Amino acid sequence: MTKLVFTACCFLLLLLNGAHHVEARRHRERRKEYMLLVFGDSFADAGNRLMRSAKSRASRGWYYPYGSSDSAHRNRATGRLSDGLVQSDFLARMLGNDDESPPPYSPSEVPDGSGVNFALPFSGVLNGPQEEMALGTQIEQFTRLVNRRDIEDVDLDDSVALVSVSNGHDYSHVSDTTSSEQMNAYIRDVTDGIVDAVKRLQDLGVSKVLVNSLPPLGCTPWRSRLISYARCDSSGNTIASTHNALLAHKLSE
Q1: Contact, 184 vs 140, CB < 8 A?
Q2: HEC-encoded secondary structure of the chain
């Protein structure tokens, strides 16, 4: 796969490792627009899940304390599952776009020149029908945009796609009784789904794809709570390291 960057660390190193592939540019310097295309989960979602009248797991990013450190938005919640900006915001700045992530996908609107953000909180590769939209479905949304020629004035080869599967949602369903053989098979399925998404993007003409790895899942609250937050959960970290090694190998083939 050409022009593919796999990140050893799921957040800032993506920007650093990608810097030699993607220089800061301005739209006015090119005849055709390029876009930032964002897919994945809450690490990159910039408020795509609409606010609901009742606070819920998926819409809690619209309520305090989320956004409390986000001076760019007057320290208000914007739907991001963060107290500040998220990865897609920083990447947009690096690319010379506006000061934040491109706007969310809307089936009834033609994207503006900055790009489109398809990411959703709690998304993953193997999401069930009652869960948030999976990565593959987000790629299908982008495919429909391309087929409708809604972005025919965009240079897809010069555009950049971010694939963020970093919150570990796929592995939140894993039971402690899962055997190592079952776990390895499941990790293969998850990483196969990420690689398939990258290939589909490249087949559509997007050659520059940034792919996140997983952080140490055992150090996240939802894993470390199993041991009363006394230390990181070793099994969660093993899942992450196995996932990252396998994903890196598949992307290099």
Answers
A1: no
A2: CCCEEECCCCCHHHHHHHCCCCCCCCHHHCCCECCEEEEECCCCCCCCCCCCCCCCCCCHHHCCCCCCCCHHHCCCCCCCCCCCCCHHHHHHHHCCCCCCCCCECCCCCCCCCCEEECCCCCCCCCCCCCCCCCHHHHHHHHHHHHHCCCCCCECHHHCEEEEECCCCHHHCCCCCCCCHHHHHHHHHHHHHHHHHHHHHHHHCCCCEEEECCCCCHHHCHHHHHHHCCCCCCHHHHHHHHHHHHHHHHHHHC
Q: Which of 135, 252, 249 is nearest to 194 (CA)?
A: 135
Cβ atoms of 2 and 207 within 8 Å: the answer is: yes
| Sign of CA pseudo-dihedral 11, 186, 80, 218 | negative
Highest mean pLDDT among 58-62, 100-104, 115-119, 130-134: 115-119
For the segment 205-226, what is each residue's pLDDT rounded down to a tens digit?
Answer: 999 999 999 999 989 887 888 7
pTM over 0.70: yes
Mean of per-residue pLDDT scores for the chain: 82
